[in-house]
Amino acid sequence: MTSRIEWVRDSCRLLAGISAEFARTCPFDGLTIGTGIHLEPKTVALILSLASGGARVISTGNLSSTQAETISYLRHRGVQVIGETTTDQARHAEDLREVIGEKPDLLLDNGGDLFLSYLGDPYPGLLGGTEETTSGRMRLRPLAGRLDVPVLVINDSPIKQFAENRHAVGQSVLESYLRITNRMTNGRRAVVFGYGACGKGIAAAFRSAHALVSVIETDPVARLEACLDGFGVPARDEALREADIVITATGAEAAVAGADLAELRDDVVLCNAGHFPVEIAVDELAGSPLVLRAEDAADGISTWHLADGRRVHLLAGGHMVNLSGPRPLGNSIESMDLGFALQARCLEAIADGSVGDSQVVVAVPRFIDERVARAFLEAYGSSGRRPGA
Ligand SMILES: NC(=O)c1ccc[n+]([C@@H]2O[C@H](COP(=O)([O-])OP(=O)(O)OC[C@H]3O[C@@H](n4cnc5c(N)ncnc54)[C@H](O)[C@@H]3O)[C@@H](O)[C@H]2O)c1
Predict the structure, then answer these.
(1) What is the pLDDT of residue 38?
(2) Whose Cα sits closest to atom 27 in ligand 1?
(3) Stated pTM of the model
(4) Hey, how many other C-beta atoms are within 10 angstroms of the C-beta on 279?
(5) pLDDT higher than threshold 80 for residue 84
(6) DSSP-derived pairing of the beta strands 151-153 and 360-363
(7) To the nearest whole number, what is the mean pLDDT of the chain?
(8) Is the pLDDT of residue 62 over 80?
(9) 194 contact partners, CB below 8 Å, separation of at least 6
(10) What is the whole-number distance in angstroms between the Cα of residue 198 and the centre of ligand 1?
């Protein structure tokens, strides 16, 4: 596993450049950065880049995605890591509180958990921070009035939208489906819930793998876009009755719920790509009177056997399928290198005061997007090859 962490670190060309620069410029000298983001090989590269800029970093993971090897790798390099891998909400909340208890000057959040924990126990001196995701932005925007410091939402950078949410999530959800189930997608009917950036990428990736893809969308404008992009947009019940594969990417709770069990066909596979493990209402489905028994069918696959003989499979317990389950790789290294370069530059800008207090839960400033875009084209070459190679 350590060799994978090294592979990822060596592959993150933007973060390597930023680390070298930060070691000279020390933008975080004397500052503590609290992070609440997946602890997996790619975030190691980000966290160590921040540390190389002089920060004392105190980190905890997100629910379910923490990898044990990552924790020991970081601890060996002087990063204070709170907690272990957990799927327990109460335990996770404790870990977040412990990070906040250290009164970090800057917060790097993923899903809004860390800022919510801060609001539960605010302290003077917070300079601001970043939020990585759509789900976090949805939680934090209504609270912007209570956060009187800059909070930059990485998710709302156009770069994050097209590089990670669309292209990378599409590829990694397909890769995870293939890896966990080892089943073909050709000719299978895949139903994607949500046609935002992630849903668009997932629908496109499954279509490229010769699945017959339909989209379920609550927003008629996004539904129209899916239709004009060539995807089926059937009625919800009809889509569920036909589906071999159901994938949620909505940011919403219970997009697939207990009542849907009546519609699902035998041998259907359900999985979630959304940030929180609530898009498929797992407890409701498991507790349905239609369910006779549940079993762990294989690594990362659980199966409900219904009284009428149908089987419904769930991948990774309804957690983010590309970051949970067996041997999760997450999104491509380059896409995360881009997003994490945005993270590092945003935190640097907040630390040096070039982002004002009025910029609360807003997108990444344009000057940072442009700087990171230029750096990527230079580091990876406009053809995708290393310049000069
Ligand atoms: N797995 C990953 O690596 C990864 C990466 C980035 C984002 N995410 C997460 O994926 C989720 C989606 O992100 P996004 O950027 O595409 O969001 P988005 O807001 O751009 O799109 C979500 C879409 O879902 C639709 N929707 C909402 N509720 C629905 C429902 N019940 N049924 C059908 N459609 C519904 C909305 O109308 C919207 O068009 C979020 O939770 C986000 O945090 C995951």
Answers:
(1) 86
(2) 250
(3) 0.88
(4) 28
(5) no
(6) parallel
(7) 94
(8) no
(9) 216, 217, 248, 249, 250, 251, 252, 255, 274
(10) 6
